[in-house]
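Residues and backbone
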Amino acid sequence: MFSLKHSVSACLVLATSYSVPALAADAAAGAEKAAICAGCHGPNGKSSNPQWPNLAAQQPDYLAVQLKAFKSGTRKNPMMQSLTANLSDQDIENLAAHFAAQPAAKAGGDTALAKTGEEKAGICLHCHGAQGQGSAQIPRLAGQHPGYLEAQLKHFKEGSRQGGPMQGMASRLSDDDIKALSAYFGSL
């Protein structure tokens, strides 16, 4: 496991490794565009399918960075690349503002596994916040589907998803740790 010093250093690297130009976001305009997102991410960003993330209450800067990464192809997902191809930077900022303004989702998770995950969560909370709420370009984990979180941690661990210090963090987690942490954050 990482020490507190390594965790804080990793968070600082992650926080300074992305930059998003500030545009005045219009959440109402984002709500109009969000219809294309509802099929997978659910009404108001609350997905009923654990394969797709909840977008409700997600950090707007994080959403904007991820949408731009899908659009540029630096984050791979054929469906998302297709859906973001014709979005302007303003559209992206508006969508991010819309989803960030939605009430948080709560996905739930295996209670016993969540208790184990809570004991291991310190490594995540240094960057993702005391309640898993995220900040700026660090994503909200609280209320996310455990299955989605588990898949993303495995992608980071195997290197098929890139993202600042997350490869290093995930590489130190066992499959059991990943399941427990995912259940914990889903339960918040």
User: Anything to note?
Assistant: The longest helix spans residues 4-16.
